[in-house]
Amino acid sequence: MTSVNREIHLASRPTGWPTAENFRLVETPVPTPGPGQILVRNRYVSVDPYMRGRMNDTKSYVPPFALDAPLDGGAVGEVVATEAEGFAVGDHVLHGLGWREYALLDAKAARPVDPDLAPLAGYLSVLGMTGLTAYAGLLEVAGMKPGETVFVSAAAGAVGSLVGQIARLRGAGRVIGSAGSPAKVDRLRDLGFDAAFDYHDAPVAEALSEAAPNGIDVYFDNVGGDHLEAAIGAMRPHGRVAVCGMIAQYNAVDPPAAPRNLAQVIGKRLTLRGFLVSDHGHLRDRFVEEVAGWLREGRISQDETVVEGLERAPEAFLGLLRGENLGKMLVRV
Q1: 96 with 133, same domain?
Q2: 116, 182, 238, 246: which has the fewest C-beta neighbours closer than 10 Å?
Q3: E runs forming strands in 65-182
Q4: Beta strands 111-112; 75-82: pairing state
Q5: pTM listed for this prediction
Q6: What's the domain range around 97?
Q7: Is residue 287 part of a domain?
Q8: 30-49 in b/e burial notation, b at 16+ Cβ within 10 A?
Q9: How many other CB atoms are found less than 10 A from the CB of residue 102?
Q10: Number of Cα atoms under 13 Å in the Cβ half of residue 291
């Protein structure tokens, strides 16, 4: 085992769109575990849209990233040293100290995973936080019922692509997705979406009206802005919106112009509910059982865009914000 650990630090806080200069690759000594701790050699780390908000020094549901310190996030890896009962060298674990090669953590902060049940990367995507976000948001937050029409924005992304597939498997009457390129639209059709459109081709409200002429019942929002405005306009009475993210405004300096039709929420008796996946841990066992079954049967899949090398983690994150990924964006360490 090498004595050098590489980490990605936040060098400065971005204003608007982040750049490569906001990150720094730093070498530190590989730490040694103390009582109750394990040392993990990370194999995959996750980069996710919510991380952009943590780069700002503002109060939110999670603390901001510290300057001149490693960023963190989902990671999966192999235990290479242990001083904790219940963990042996060679075990594989899921944890929250990504953006580094070696992670030192308390054993209680790690969750064992089985590489024979699914590939390691799958525990950061379809069987991980990404999958649970899709499952909980669609079925518990939005309360989708069989026969309903579901619209998903950023539908070719990690969460959105799973939302559409779960909706189909759970009996949605019609599933519609928006994406940012013709290739992504084609992929959504391959995944079983009934309709899909490229939001660059026409105003979102116009494209959604064509795809769902009778309206929608559920909107899974990953984008905000003009997508949310279009969804409100297309909603049937008592429609529900699960607000997972608003990537359209994460890098905005000025307040968003849309939605301008928020008053329709009243007359249509709509429900708009934001959520965090951390509030839905009680669903984990049911989620894993159901989704793992779909995986075994070949009825659900997760696209992955894998960038090689920890030093390219900032590049992967910036590509994610630009929509360059298909499915889950991962860095192989």
Answers
A1: no
A2: 116
A3: 75-82, 92-95, 102-106, 111-112, 149-152, 174-179
A4: unpaired
A5: 0.90
A6: 4-125+303-332
A7: no
A8: beebeeebbbbbbbbbbbbb
A9: 23
A10: 28
Report CA torsion sign: 246, 221, 244, 287.
negative
For the four alpha carbons of 191, 188, 305 and 70, in that order, the dihedral sign comes to negative
Residues 171 and 214 in one domain: yes
- Tell me how far CA of residue 62 lies from CA of 51, 58, 59, 72, 246, in angstroms: 10, 10, 8, 12, 16
Say if residue 223 is in the same domain as residue 198.
yes
Res 17: pLDDT: 93
Is 222 found in the same domain as 138?
A: yes
Task: Report the relative pairing of strands 149-152 and 111-112 from DSSP bridges.
Answer: unpaired
Q: Any bridge partners for residue 41, and if so which?
A: 78, 102
Q: What integer pLDDT is reported at residue 62 of this predicted model? A: 84
User: Based on the domain organization, do 81 and 184 belong to the same domain?
Assistant: no
**Containing H/E element for 68?**
none
Backbone angles phi, psi at 248, to 5 degrees: -65, -20
CATH assignment of the domain containing 249: 3.40.50.720
In the chain, helix, strand, coil percent, each to 5?
30, 30, 40
DSSP 159-224: HHHHHHHHHHHTT-SEEEEEESSHHHHHHHHHTT-SEEEETTTS-HHHHHHHH-TT-EEEEEESS-
Each residue of 13-35: pLDDT tens digit? 999 999 999 999 999 999 999 99
Q: What is the number of domains present in the chain? A: 2
Q: Is residue 291 part of a domain?
A: no
Whole-angstrom Cα distance, residue 81 to residue 99?
A: 19
Residues 175 and 267 grouped into a single domain? yes
The secondary structure element, H or E, covering residue 40 is: strand 37-46
Interacting residues of 263 by C-beta distance below 8 A, sequence separation 6+: none
Residue 162 has pLDDT above 80, yes or no: yes
